[in-house]
Structure formats: structure tokens, C-alpha cells
User: Fold this.
Amino acid sequence: MVNRALNITVTEYDENWARLFQKEKEIIRDMFKDELVEIHHIGSTAVPKLKAKPIIDIMPVVKDITKVDLFNEKVMDIGYEPLGELGIEGRRYFRKGGISRTHQLHFFQYDNYYELERHLAVRDYLVVHEKDRIEYGELKESLACQFPKDIEGYSDGKYRYVQNLEQEALLWKRKMNS
Assistant:
């Protein structure tokens, strides 16, 4: 089923994305206090010079993932919609802005090593690998033109590329850490 209300837009990198992340990070830190371990800016808006959909992805890392559910009402009060795991076991996902998302929260427990590692590895890999960053940005831009109102088509179009990118990034990160 194609979602006709959505308008997929990929733009040039915007330096304001880092400020938007910092602003939201402070709000989340004040709300979750001692339950938080750290908060990361992830996704394409966290990578300077990468074309992206203008949606700020934030990955709060918590001590106990089940306690995040206790904050649902508070998170809703600041404009987020709680959507549970939404396809990733051990995650708590929230989106802000409804169908025209502006922010996404991806909560993981501190010991969910695989999810934490893969998100950070892709971000860090793209920061230092210009050729891959440009190629990925151009792919996303092309898919947004090809599927301007079809998020499934857009996502399917980049699925294989992202899977390969993730594997390359994980290998690179592990090599860097050895």
C-alpha cells in the first residue's frame, strides 16, 4: 500500500541539524535523568555533507529499556508518538511530527551491543569515507525523485545498499578498534 500523504524530500546537509539535535538532547536528558547512559545523534542528519531527509534521528542509550515505557506520557507531552519496538527487538521508537516527521527517537539498552554498534558504525564510517557518503546521498536523492510519495519504494530501493554499507562500516569499525 502506497502512503499518498507522505512527501519524501532529500536535501543538502544543513548545519542546523546539529543544533536541532542538541536542543532535543537537552530536553531528553532533563526528562530521563538517571536512566540515561548517553545520547547519540545518528542517521544521515548526523553526517556532515550527506544529503538526507530532514529528520533528526536520536539514539538515547538507557540502563533498562523496559523503564522507557514509563515515560510514554511525558514523551507525548513534548510531541512524540510512542510506537513500541516497531520491528526492532529491544528498541523503543518514538516519532515527532506524525507523517511529516521532524525527529525520531531510537532508545536502546546499554548492553544491546549489536544495535548500538551498527548505528554508530554507519555514522562514523560515512563521516570519513567521502566516496561512499556522496554515493549514498545521490542514491537517496534519486530514490526520493523516483518515489516522491512512496516510502516503501524509497526504502526498498536503498535496502540492499544500506545492508552492504552497514556490513562495510562494521568491518571498518572493528578493524579500527582492534
User: Anything to note?
Assistant: The chain has one domain: 16-177. The helical segments are 16-32, 65-68, 72-77, 113-128, 130-146, 151-177. Residues 16-177 form a domain with the Beta Polymerase; domain 2 fold (CATH 3.30.460.10).
